[in-house]
Amino acid sequence: MEVIATSLIAVLGTLLGSSLTYLFQRRTAERAERFTRAERLRQERIDAYCSYGGALANFRRGQLDHWFATHDGNAVDEEAAWELRREAQRLRALALEAQFRVELLTLSDELSDLARQALRAVDRFPDAHSREDLEPVWEAARSLMHAFIAASRRHVPDVSAVR
What we know:
Layout: H1 2-70, H2 78-105, H3 109-123, H4 131-153
Protein name: Protein kilB
Organism: Streptomyces hintoniae
């Protein structure tokens, strides 16, 4: 009888130990998976926000190149002006694509709104008819681009908090 009791205790102890080990390993694996998922989202957001900021800066430069070529007393042939306009349009398409990526990855309406406002500000460059008109448009676009990047910082998850 004593042998049966000892064997039963040994079997129950082994089962209990195996069950606890399984539970702890499962929790550890789930935590590692959550961390990996959060880190991947963090990296994707960082990449999207930086890409959008860069795309906006390039679009802004393209708009300025076109504006200065066609305004302010500059005599540029029609073909060169057309090429600069096409380049600005290409850069706008890239910025718009990057904006879509931002909007897919963020949960923040504020950040999406800032992204749209920044793109609209750069779109206003052709409306300026003189350098005096261009200055506030240029400054508004620059300020909104920096505001977007500053706001995006708050929407990059801190993976150290993932448990």
